[in-house]
Design a protein that fits this description.
The protein contains eleven helices and 15 strands. With 385 residues, the protein is of the alpha/beta class. Helix 9 packs across helix 10. It binds ligand FHN.
Length: 385
């Protein structure tokens, strides 16, 4: 679960509103005193995350607006010294730990509030001041909240990796948090890649995590009604599992800290699906060459391949291109399925007329040999002619 929360939630027009509407700093700053979120809002998020089958959370500790959701000795532009009157990061950490969820901190290097946030690109004294400030805030985050699991940097505009002194900064992070993993957005590859709003596996065995919104907005934006369906999110989970990655799915809480009901409904439906089919996602991350099929796609664990059927064809399901002998076919509850196989045409028979699980019905196939599904454009593979 990704959480985008900040002063911008009060305006309700995404987290870039200060930039997109050219709101002057002295006007935007007033939001720091009017923001009065309810106590321990994070407890609701953490419960929802657990219910949804999430394993970790990543929350914005400071977004581009420059407002720190955590107490700091380096700036009073923070939640403890302004409107909220308390450390919202501390509340988030407490709530995540109550649900035994791993803890990630999102930190935007770009800062529209700090007077050196842009000038640092042109003025060495400003860069020195701003980099010391940045490293100082990151040090506070890595010191004051116990064990952390993920450092999720964002937007390294306007400096490069030398300008940010990212190697030094990340060495400090690892010294303070020896087991932490760091993403690739401080300008260095570090531990994992972060495809955003698309699902693309990293090369080789490099870790990766796709971050996605539930509508089109990261921050709270009630005028954005373009909600994804739970079925689409289940499809994303299948895709990231098949690629050996993770999915970081976002919530943008209201100013008070409530989860928009449309978002909560998506997470709850996906959680119910994962409660049944979780092993076909969490544990089924072995690679398997596969090609597009109208009715669904695979995940794999060893000699077991899971066909996630998200367009139910009715009483018969034909799967083309499977280059393995199928030894058994069954529903995930264990009920056996009759099947026939001629060359690379597998047909499952006597299925229910309607999909048992509308989000995706997973059919388990035990196969021999290295699982592979290959079709090509012809109706036979050229190397078989
Ligand atoms: O500009 C940000 C955006 O607001 C949001 O935080 C996303 C989430 O990964 N990151 C940046 C855009 O890539």
């Amino acid at each position: 679960m990704f959480i985008h929360w900040g002063l911008y939630a009060q305006l309700g027009r995404q987290e870039w509103v200060m930039n997109r509407e050219r709101i002057p700093v002295d006007e935007y700053e007033k939001l720091a005193d009017t923001w009065k979120p309810k106590p321990m809002a994070a407890r609701d998020w953490a419960k929802l995350a657990k219910e949804a089958g999430c394993r970790y959370m990543v929350m914005t500790t400071k977004h581009h607006e420059g407002f720190c959701l955590f107490d700091s000795e380096l700036t009073d532009y923070n939640a403890a010294k302004c409107g909220p009157g308390r450390d919202l990061v501390a509340e988030y950490v407490e709530a995540a730990r109550e649900q035994d969820l791993r803890i990630g901190f999102y930190y935007s290097l770009m800062d529209w509030h700090h007077p050196d946030g842009a000038r640092c690109a042109k003025d060495e004294d400003a860069r020195r001041r701003f980099v010391d400030y940045t490293h100082g805030l990151v040090r506070e985050l890595c010191t004051n909240y116990g064990k952390l699991d993920i450092m999720w940097y964002d937007m390294n505009w306007p400096l490069d990796v030398e300008g940010w002194e990212s190697e030094k900064m990340n060495a400090m992070v690892r010294e303070l948090q020896p087991e932490i993993i760091i993403n690739n957005r401080s300008g260095l590859p570090e531990d994992f890649g972060t495809p955003e709003q698309h699902i693309t596996a990293e090369e080789g065995n490099r870790m990766w995590e796709a971050c996605m919104t539930t509508n089109d907005s990261w921050g709270y934006t009630p005028i954005d009604k373009n909600w994804k369906t739970a079925g689409e999110v289940v499809g994303m989970l299948r895709q990231v599992a098949a690629g050996g990655g993770n999915l970081l799915l976002n919530i943008g809480p209201t100013p008070e800290g409530d989860v928009p009901p449309e978002t909560a409904a998506i997470f709850q439906q996906v959680g119910k699906w994962l409660a049944k089919y979780g092993p076909t996602i969490y544990d089924a991350t072995d690679p398997m060459p596969q090609e597009y099929l109208t009715t669904g796609a695979f995940t794999r664990k060893g000699q077991t391949i899971y066909f996630h059927c998200n367009r139910w064809p009715g009483k018969e399901l034909a799967i083309g291109g499977l280059r393995n002998e199928v030894l058994a076919a069954r529903f995930f509850d264990g009920k056996q399925i009759e099947f026939t196989q001629q060359a690379d045409r597998l047909v499952l028979h006597s299925l229910p007329a309607e999909a048992p699980d509308p989000l995706a019905t997973v059919i388990e196939l035990e196969v021999s040999g290295e699982p592979r599904q290959e079709l090509g454009a012809g109706c036979v593979l050229l190397d078989e002619i």
